Amino acid sequence: MEVDVRLDPATPADDLEPLVAHVEQRLGALADSLRERDVQAIELQAQELHRALARAVESFMHAARHGGVPEAMRLRLARASAQLARQREALSRATAALDRAIDVLMPGTAAPVGRVYTASGLSAPLRSNTNLNA
Questions:
Q1: pTM of the predicted protein model
Q2: Nearest C-alpha neighbor of 23 from the set 85, 92, 86, 81
Q3: Which of 24, 28, 79, 113 is the most buried (most CB within 10 A)?
């Protein structure tokens, strides 16, 4: 169900509620996609969250200039921002762990040439210095 989250420039600060709710909804959808490890859904939800946050921030700035933002709305947006930071940190840790695992399984130039991990462990070098010509 799509929610109209546009804010009329003359709308009072109390109408920020649908914008914050939309940001919270997008955060929840992104968390679900991350949990399901659905790369396409993660990308889509991240884009939708970015759009929702941009609209909310723009509207909050407008409301702040024209009468102020209720404390409850500021706190909800701050909580959403903290949740986003936690998701970003968790994703960063997962990415770092994956990078370390790849480095172990497929060592770069610092490791002995041609040695990689296989299902049975560290393999012998792929190239040997032995001349096999007859």
A1: 0.65
A2: 81
A3: 24
